[in-house]
Amino acid sequence: MKYEGIGSAFCLTGLALALVGLTAVQPAWSADTVTFAGYGGDYQKNIVKALIKPAADKEGIDLRTESHDGLATVRVQVSSGRPAWDIVQLGAEECATGSSQGLFEKLDYKLINLDGIPPQAHADDWIASNYYSVVLAYRTDKYKNNPPKTWADFWDVKKFPGKRALALQPQETMEVALLGDGVSPDKLYPLDQKRALEALARLKPNIAAWWTTGAQSAQLIRDGEVDMEAIWGSRIAPVMQSGAPVNFTFNQGLLAYACLAIPKGAKHAAEARKVIADVVTPAIQANIPEVMSFYGPVNAKAFDVRKFSPDVLSKANSSPQNRAAQVPMDGAYWGKDQNLQKGNESLRSLISQ
Questions:
Q1: What is the Cα–Cα distance from 214 to 56, expressed in whole angstroms?
Q2: Collapsing DSSP states into helix, strand and coil, what is residue 187?
Q3: CA dist., res. 94 & res. 332, Å (int)
């Protein structure tokens, strides 16, 4: 996911801006200031509101915010030896890749309490910050009282005729394809990319669109251009709120995470470590369900430290009831052994045929 966006997509404009920024005179921020960079937009505003600002305030640290265009721009900053950012938020596969390439500072696990945080959601130099979901959404005016409930239903074009849409990226799309082809969630990784492509090839005649942005995915189902699709949960919410005849299910949704890291050479790495340690505490993680509907805390203990209304819990993708229905994604798989590159090449080859 890109969060407009998390993923490995790279923007040449963003690289140019990053290079310009590195050649300019950098302001001298005080030792008690950290600069957080994310993917921008409303998502970043809400992440700052829910997590980063409360953590910085707790430590008495001033906060600046900027935006970036993905791991490639972080790599440029690190290569300069003078990164302008102290904390970056990235996608899970980007954190895995950046870690393997030595782009991040080590975190201080003397400061971080891992109680409630899954073992797959952290490493020596990054840690998950929040969950997002990929869900199956559908038009209620098309399917009435018999909507698709699983990815197998998504692949069943006889029982559920209609136009489909999937993301034009192997991460998420290949997981969905394998689940639709009958792979058990506990046998999903390492992904059988060949089997996923075969499943996608069978469904290809019924795929009306391969979306590339969250806004496009929302527009496709809101306007009835497709009857069902795989979509980020945060993107289906405003479609439903607009009154469009659309619903979704968390059943077999993909539960994935965004992560935080400190670029190698960050000037305020010590302060950044403190902020990140606070971000993942239950008290601050508990801000997510109330600030960011359809996202969720990565620290399960967040649901123990605050009482949430049934409505809030129903929308929090990592609440106990919703988490149990979903399949955890393994971002590390996409961050190693050129799995992402191979997946991108093969998926685009399939679509072009």
A1: 29
A2: helix
A3: 9
CB 220 within 8 A of CB 211: yes
When pLDDT is cut at 50, 70 and 90, the band that residue 193 belongs to is very high
The β-bridge relationship of strands 33-38 and 62-67 is parallel
**Contact 79/255 with Cβ under 8 angstroms?**
no
Q: How many CB atoms lie within 10 A of CB 187?
A: 9
| CATH 1.10.3720.10 holds for 133-254+334-352 | no
- Is residue 78 scored above 80 in pLDDT? yes
Instruction: Average the pLDDT over 259-266 and give the result.
Output: 98
Tell me the backbone φ, ψ of residue 110, rounded to 5 degrees. Answer: -75, -25
Alpha-carbon distances of 316 from 3, 215, 257, 295, 312, rounded to whole Å: 17, 21, 13, 6, 6
| Mean pLDDT to the nearest integer, 212-235 | 96
> Spelled out in words, what is the top-level CATH class assigned to the domain 12-131+256-332?
alpha beta
- Which structure tokens are listed for 313? 């819990």
Rounded-to-integer distance, Cα 214 and Cα 167, Å = 9
Mean pLDDT of 252-281: 97
Dist CA 248 CA 87 (whole Å): 34
CA distance 337 to 324: 30
Q: Which of 70, 82, 30, 3 is nearest to 264 (CA)?
A: 82
The rounded distance, in Å, linking the Cα atoms of 240 and 137 is 10
Nearest to 8 by CA among 78, 67, 93: 93
Every domain of the chain with CATH number 3.40.190.10 lies at 12-131+256-332, 133-254+334-352
What whole-number distance in Å separates Cα of residue 244 and Cα of residue 249? Answer: 16
Is the four-CA dihedral 150, 156, 159, 162 of positive or negative sign? positive
- What does the block give as tokens for 137? 């959404």
In the predicted structure, residue 351 carries a pLDDT above the cut 80: yes
User: 0.85 cut: is pTM over it?
Assistant: yes
Residues ≥6 apart with Cβ < 8 Å to 345: none
CA–CA gap between residue 71 and residue 313 (Å, rounded) = 32
| 317 CA to centre of own chain | 12
| Residues facing residue 128 across a β-bridge | 259
